[in-house]
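User: Before I run my own analysis I want an independent prediction to cross-check against. Here's the chain; please return only the structure tokens and, at the end, one sentence I can use as a sanity check.
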Amino acid sequence: MPRIPKKQELEALNQMEQILPLDLENIVKKAAAEYFGDGKILESAIGALIIGKLYGWQPLRVLHNASVYAKYQKILGVKFADVCPARGPLAGRSVGLQIDDSIANFWKIAKGEIKVPNKGLFDKS
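Assistant: Structure tokens:
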């Protein structure tokens, strides 16, 4: 995936501000009210939702193994693919997706069948 210029990233993020707070707030409030267990896991699930909104569900799926990804969805009561773009405005910063785009095998990377060093990193460029 070609790198999105910073100006375009900022414009996309500014447009997201109009839709991001309300649906995020409702999802987070419901999850917090219904969750019981280790607070660190709830915190991580909420963080994953925010990362999914900004980077997309594909970078999020590359970042987490299948069981963690499914656990976070269950805690939040949503499917990331239903509430997050496949690739958000910051997706171009995902090292895992950059590598995936060069070898075109997203699911093998996401499932860990193809080992990619640093696949969970977000670059700064």
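Sanity check: Helices lie at 6-16, 20-34, 39-55, 57-63, 66-76, 80-83, 95-103, 106-110.
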